[in-house]
Amino acid sequence: MAGFFERLRQGMTKTRTGLGDKIRALVGGRQWSDSLYDDLEEILYEADLGAQAVESILDQLRQRVRESRPERAEDVLDLLRQVMVSMLESMPNPYELTGTPAIWLMVGVNGTGKTTTAGKLAERMKRRGHSVILGAADTFRAAAAEQLMEWGRRAGVDVVHQVEGADPAAVAFDTVRAASARKLDLAVIDTAGRLHNKAHLMQELGKIARVVGRECPGAPHQVWLVIDATTGQNGLEQARVFQEAVNVTGIVLTKLDGTAKGGVAFAIHQALNIPIGFVGVGEKLDDLMTFDPEGYVRAILGMEEPH
Predict the structure, then answer these.
(1) How many CB atoms lie under 10 A from the CB of residue 226?
(2) Could you give the CA distance from residue 40 to residue 22 in angstroms, rounded to a whole number?
(3) Assuming Cys at both sites, which of 58, 70, 172, 181 could form a disulfide with 75, CB separation 3.0 to 4.6 Å?
């Protein structure tokens, strides 16, 4: 766990500098007073927590301060940690497989790291002892299939693919059928994320969901929405489009290492009410981590790991 927390903390350096250091500078060596709420509000906004989340955090913090009446501002920092942790929801077990085989769809805008995340999840699940197959149903983006096939080679996992421009639902169908015929545990299907025509995108994703559902009742069992943390509130708006198209069950928040606005996890969860399963803080396989609200909040506030 120490290694996990330290990697998360290092990966979120930009957010910690932009949020945690400013909050610690605000509260350091002071007595708490109501005049500090305005400064705290500004800092939270700058980290891209979103208006809804910031308002909720400050309301709950005021209530806890009234109840406990802390004298030192440092004690208020721990109350803030408690409030922030309580507002985030992680998936109880993002690795849980339901269905035989289990079918996971990866959705999100192109450029979020969706295909890479599909490959990382497949490799991770195989290392956990599961038999896995990948489906390259993003047939419109140049080199998407090749990228996924490279992950398949790394993981020793087969990849179902067709020629560029093929029907994505047909690839998804073939992937599910192959997983069923081989009695595999899991099929991870990558999908397109073109937003220039939202209506077409929703129709395409809806068709894929229906096709896999017909072939494997109850599928897709997980729909992972991959969001690039560096896009901030724009990522949130994009997420709404995918939520309209398919029943998103979990969030993967990538590229947290590239932004000072890692607080966007709060905005996403407040607006969409979807649990976060994984966060990405780098390119390496181990940089895709199971989301832990306590560790995440401590990392961005610059606090020590709990003992």
Answers:
(1) 28
(2) 9
(3) 70
- Known binding residue 254? Answer is yes
Question: Is 213 annotated among the ligand-binding residues?
Answer: no
Average pLDDT over residues 113-133: 95
194 is in an annotated binding site: yes
* Residue 170 is assigned to a ligand binding site: no
Do 41 and 256 form a contact (C-beta atoms < 8 A)?
Answer: no
Half-sphere CA count of 236, side-chain side, radius 13 A? 21
Indicate the pTM of the whole model. Answer: 0.91
What does DSSP assign to residue 303? P
192 belongs to an annotated ligand binding site: yes
Distances in Å between the Cα of 299 and the Cα atoms of 7, 8, 172, 262, 293 are 10, 7, 38, 10, 10
φ and ψ at residue 290, rounded to 5 degrees = -65, 130
Tens-place pLDDT, residues 77-117:
899 999 999 999 888 899 999 989 999 999 998 889 999 99
Q: Which domains does the chain have, with CATH numbers?
A: 102-254 (3.40.50.300)
Per-residue confidence at 307, pLDDT binned at 50, 70, 90? low
231: annotated binding-site residue?
Answer: no
d(CA 85, CA 299): 12
The partner residues of 11 in beta bridges, in order of sequence, read none
Tokens found for residue 170: 């047909």
User: Which residues have a Cβ under 8 Å from the Cβ of 214 and sit 6 or more positions away?
Assistant: none
Cis peptide before 70 (omega within 30 of 0): no
